[in-house]
Amino acid sequence: MVWAPIELYYTPSSPHCRAVLMCLKALGLDVELIKLDMYQKYEHKKPWFIKMNPQHTVPTINDSGYILWESRAIMCYLVNKYNNDDLELQSLYPKDPESRGNIDKLLFFDIGSLYKSIVDYFHPMLMTGEGSDEKKANALKTALDYLDGFLSQQTFVVGDSLTIADLSILSSITQLEALDFKITGYKHLSRWLQKLKEDLPYFDECNKEGIDMFRSWARSKQGTNGNSENLLRHKKPIRCKTYD
Amino acid sequence: MPVELYGMSASAPCRIVAMTLEVLEVPYEYKTIDLMAGDQMKPEYLKINPQHNIPTLVDGDFAMNESRAIATYLANAYGKDSKLYPVDPKVRAVVDQRLYFDMGVFYKAIGDIIYPKMFEGKDPESGAKDKLKEVLGWVNDMIKKSGYAAGTDSLTLADLAFIASFSTLVETGSFDVSGFAELNAWFEKVKGEIKNYEKANGAGATAMGQWYKSKL
Question: Where does this protein have coiled-coil stretches (chain A) (predicted)?
Fold first, then answer.
């Protein structure tokens, strides 16, 4: 059976779009990339896109007329639908309730704790030039501590093989890198990041352009808002627990 | 051995799990973790959940946190072929989409209205009310389609997550929701479809509302 390629509406600098793109590649699926200019042309606010996704967010997919958004829900859908009963593909999101429970837990940890703490901490500094907020810095540090703790026990964020939870969290962690936030103090997290960058054949193809774009944008904001000092102060993790 | 749910009835995420257990008719033991008393920092709790948040589920030797992930686990483990979490990839994906939407958008927008008052004695940030109004509009439109949150013809986990959030907002009285007709009709209907609704969600939502009002 020939499948029409899945349409992915995206913007390269969005970490969530990068995660979905990696998932499509991990499954070996054909994709038609439709880049939206969200910053100058506001293409996501055009009626045709709002009709498709009233929340006008990216990523959004169109799989032969079936429309879905929310990056993590998209990744679950893609593996559920296209694992072809192939064990290696299934292992991205295994079917047994316990593994699934652990993966879903990490996906919700990413949206609600890790990625949220990145946005809460950096967004005000980048957008309005506010100073660094210690409480928000600590929330980010706490999320990274947990993550480092999970990774001290196993190769990947859930168990010893790659899952969609790794892809989701990888996109958040590389967003931190794009913000020049160093995670080298987190030993296990650094080891995991290095491994994924080296092992995933699609890493550069899915991430490099977006990370570079976001980094240039963030650096230009630091310049205009004159708060580079605040960001620099957190180039090194403030203090982190170590897990040995 | 019944599964154990560690939590607090006022907490909306804990109520998602309690309702899921009720609807799936899984016997459970509720163990109260009083956050105000610091129960979550006790060594025995940190052992099952180092992140020391609530809820936590313990099922034999398997323990996990994150309410919406617990709900999907329970449906996967105990609700085989249940309509609560449909197995068709396209339908399930819409339920998943609603669960992430609940966490990142819906419950967040409600939290942004009620938490500043409850925990910091401050007014919500400017723009928070407009945001919630937009979000409630989306939720109303999602429900309009079939009378259920994920566009299905019966109750799913998406309804349970939304009802935990929405009932909290209603009980605080912090926002006028009367303009969202489909949403209000859905709320009244779905309450009646959840076994032991008052115990699993109603009473806790009321307690949360009273707590909010006591801070005004």
Answer: none
Same domain as B201, residue B121: yes
Residue B11 bears catalytic tag: yes
Domain count, chain B: 2
Q: What is the ipTM of this complex?
A: 0.94
Question: Looking at the complex, does the CB of residue B117 fall below 8 Å from at least one CB of chain A?
Answer: no
Do B123 and B147 have their domain in common? yes
Query: B186, B160 in Cβ contact below 8 A?
Result: no
The verdict on B106 touching A (C-beta cutoff 8 Å) is no
Residues ≥6 apart with Cβ < 8 Å to B73? A97, A98, A100, A101, A104, B57, B64
All domains of chain A in start order, with CATH: 6-90 (3.40.30.10), 97-243 (1.20.1050.10)
Selected residue of B97, B101, B110 to mutate for chain A interface (largest A Cβ count, 10 A): B97
- For B53-98, what is each residue's pLDDT tens digit? 999 999 999 999 999 999 999 999 999 778 999 999 999 999 999 9
What pTM does this model have? 0.93
C-alpha distances (whole Å) from A48 to each of A39, A52, B94, B204 are 17, 7, 21, 42
